Amino acid sequence: MRHEHIISAKQLSRADIEEVLDHAAEIAADPAAYADRHAGKLLGLLFFEPSTRTKMSFSAAIKRLGGDVVDMGPVEYSSVKKGESLADTVRVVEGYADALVMRHPSEGSAQMATEFVDVPLLNGGDGAGQHPTQTLLDLYTIRENAGLDDLSIGIMGDLKYGRTVHSLAHALTNFDTHQHFISPESLQLPRSVRYDLHEEGATIREHTELEEILPSLDVLYVTRIQEERFPDENEYREVAGEYQIDAATLEAASDDLTVMHPLPRVDEIAHDVDATEHATFFEQAHNGVPVRMALLDLLLEGTR
Amino acid sequence: MSDDQKLRVSKIHNGTVIDHIAGGQALNVLAILGIDGADGEPISIVMNTPSDRLGTKDIIKVEGRELSEAEVDVLSLIAPAATINIIRDYDVVEKHRVNRPEEVVGVLECPNQHCITTENEPIDSQFEVLEDGVRCAYCDTIIREDLAAHILAG
Fold it and tell me: A70 pairs with which residues across the strands?
């Protein structure tokens, strides 16, 4: 791995992505072979915002590589509560761990943190910015189910504040994909993501209705419309409830459609979808472990 | 030029004259350069004087200080037509235009209230300069309109 830190999907080339996905597939095929690979190594967990999947799958990943975690714990019990800067916190914690995973509510926080640490730092989500390790497990899931080239993918829901969307859209420009973005007008892609997609030569196709594009999709990536990202509750209420799918919606889709979701879902994917062949979101969540094992293994390689 | 105008833009002994600033931008230029007169240096400002090229223009003269190219290039964001004259012993010894820099550091404030640079962290704001705006190096926010409104307060 040529990268020291994993901060944004923008930094990842097609070769980088394929290196991680190929290694994840090797690990998934024979996890026992990696059980002692990073014995004694510690992964520092700095989660300034709640997390279930990212935090637990990173914990599982380092433990399945023979290492362990040191966890800052909830913000309310940490020195951050006493007013410590993020720069100071990461400088202290890097002395306790061989690599760090950080989630923080401010955009650019992971980028800033890399200026103060020497150990590898992985961005576990920075506000409405980026979530590159989620993207790697998303790409792994897409590759397993639909392939990454000649792919038609619809990304639906909160495209404005959804960091998983921003990272995924960037990463997909490395592949031969047709990206369709489905959202209410108030939640369309932010200017900065449009700028990058345009720079990469990608065509942005935007839709306000799923129906018009659903039959042509190979993958439908649904995201939660997140109340906490809205400055104003009224704005949230206006769009909440739209862009939900159920088994009946999917009758118009191709039989091979793969339905993904970074989870947690609220009601944007009805539970009757779970029993269909389309549902791939739990498999997607489980893929977080081999993909994060691969990423940690590649980043920690030089420290063995 | 009339006598009245000559009076307003009298010569300086040593220092820098920034000419061809778009009319009304002189105070923003001073803010960007961090020049507020607190060091006691004489500063002359002429605003909204007629200009063939710009319609109206502003001029700033800073006595006793030679501004470097790196210092003034940031002005290209709000005063792209500006010319810089370095004065020694009443003569213009250097004259150049502002160049668009690749990045500007510690000059603009990110308008994204969730950007890490707006918090109490030991970092300067940093913006990549695009063809038609600037982009925060931390949170990626792009500013295209009214850059002067985002100048960091002294």
Answer: A44
